Amino acid sequence: MDGTGAAEQGIAFDRVNKWYGQMHVLQDVTFSVAPGEKIVVCGPSGSGKSTMIRCINRLEEHQAGTIRVGGVEVNDQRRNIEQVRRRVGMVFQNFNLYPHLTILENCTLAQRWVRGTPRAEAEARAMRYLERVRIPDQARKYPGQLSGGQQQRVAIARSLCMEPEIMLFDEPTSALDPELVREVLDTMVSLAEEGMTMICVTHEMGFARQVADRVIFMDRGRIVESAHPDDFFSNPKEERSRLFLSQILH
Amino acid sequence: MTVIDWGYILAAFPDLMRGLGMTLMVSLLAILFSLLLGLAGCALRVSGIRPLSYAMRGYVEFIRGTPYLVQIFFVFYGLPSLGFTLSIFWSGVLALTIWASAFHIESFRAGLASVGREMHDASASLGLRRLPHALLVVAPIALRSALPSTLNTVVGTIKNSAYLQAIGLVELTFVAVDRIAQDFRSTEMFLSICVIYLVVILGVSALGHRLERRLNRPYGSR
Ligand SMILES: Nc1ncnc2c1ncn2[C@@H]1O[C@H](COP(=O)(O)OP(=O)(O)OP(=O)(O)O)[C@@H](O)[C@H]1O
Ligand SMILES: [Mg+2]
What we know:
The complex is a heterodimer.
Chain A: H1 4-9, E1 11-20, E2 23-33, E3 38-42, H2 49-56, E4 64-69, E5 72-73, H3 78-87, E6 88-91, H4 103-114, H5 119-132, H6 148-160, E7 166-170, H7 178-193, E8 197-201, H8 205-211, E9 214-219, E10 222-227, H9 229-234, H10 239-248
Parallel strand pairs in A: 3-8, 3-9, 6-7, 7-8
Antiparallel strand pairs in A: 1-2, 1-4, 4-5, 9-10
Helix pairs in contact in A: 4-5, 4-6, 5-6, 6-7
Chain B: H1 6-45, H2 50-64, H3 68-81, H4 88-113, H5 117-126, H6 130-160, H7 172-183, H8 186-216
Helix pairs in contact in B: 1-2, 1-4, 1-7, 1-8, 2-4, 3-4, 4-6, 6-8, 7-8
Bound molecules: adenosine-5'-triphosphate and magnesium ion.
Membrane topology (chain B): Multi-pass membrane protein
Keywords (chain B): Amino-acid transport, Cell membrane, Membrane, Transmembrane, Transmembrane helix, Transport
Protein name (chain B): Amino acid ABC transporter membrane protein 1 (PAAT family)
């Protein structure tokens, strides 16, 4: 699919396996993502989507196979994990903002404590990214005072402050009221247009059609199908993909 | 019909205030020490180091499962036979501290348990290391949610200082009981000290609630 050179720069999964007790939640997962590529991951609940992307920055451990991010193997070496996390940002379904810190502090904490950025510089960068997600005026408020859509955009800005090369999104709009989904998707689209490497677990098929270079469909811990969105939506090859699409597209 | 002798209360007032001074002194020291020991004990309890964690669990169960008066007698009468002799005052501070620390450990632990997996995920994905994560994210969130029960223990520390009259510490309750033994004015004396305790504790609670409101303001409308 991708040349090995590209895989060295991006993400490469090679026969990755993971079990929770007896349950085999990732089964020989193999794929790669080139720099600048946008991947949408979909599949039924419990199919292993979250587990898979959480393995990329070692929020979960895999037990067999190899994962490389920018040529660095994701294993139990702390140095490797830190290197990978420096390159990879992540946005979660429930935003995961720090509730006791202001929006601005949410965006500066890691800059200051991970990278040792001086306060003024960290705040300037935070404000730049808060402007990018169009909420600079909320900087002094606390997460609890913002709408879900605003909170999720802050979470995106907080990640961007660490200037990652790759962004992971785990169902970033699933916890939002329908009228707030658009503003978050717009932010993600603009990020995609600027060339960010992205892996998004989402069932927003409009978004997938608009930005994805590839859709990966997972079921029961396996990658069942991996195709360009046009092909995937109009002409899914696998029976299970078809069944899934008929369910989410009605 | 008993009529309250206000003049008697007035005459006893300076004595009662001296007793209150002692009550506040032991309580304040015990509150300070127990908060520090509670934090340390909680850290050991959740350290993941088995023997330390079990020791803390045992300590908490022991304190919760035995009468407070017995704990005081153990400190005052028991420790000297083990070679530690303390003055009445420091025995009192120690007994109160031992009692309150156990409850603080449990409050702080409950506070920690309220910090979800989400915070860990956020910090890990940002590359934040363990120590800054623990100090700047987990501790502030945990302490906020532990605050109400911590406040209970603080108030309990002040109230429990009354038991220290049993080892002869001249604190507020001791003063009252001592006067009753001489003058038999129990209504006057118990009414007085009830009011004094109540004023002190309402004051402490009000301070605590103000702190709570201030710390929770950030959480906004949630
Ligand atoms: N910590 C855990 N312990 C045990 N089993 C787990 C754990 N986390 C996930 N699982 C199981 O692993 C499987 C994959 O879970 P995962 O969360 O990756 O699915 P998902 O595709 O993200 O689902 P959803 O769409 O509901 O988010 C599920 O069967 C789930 O029950
Ligand atoms: Mg999931």
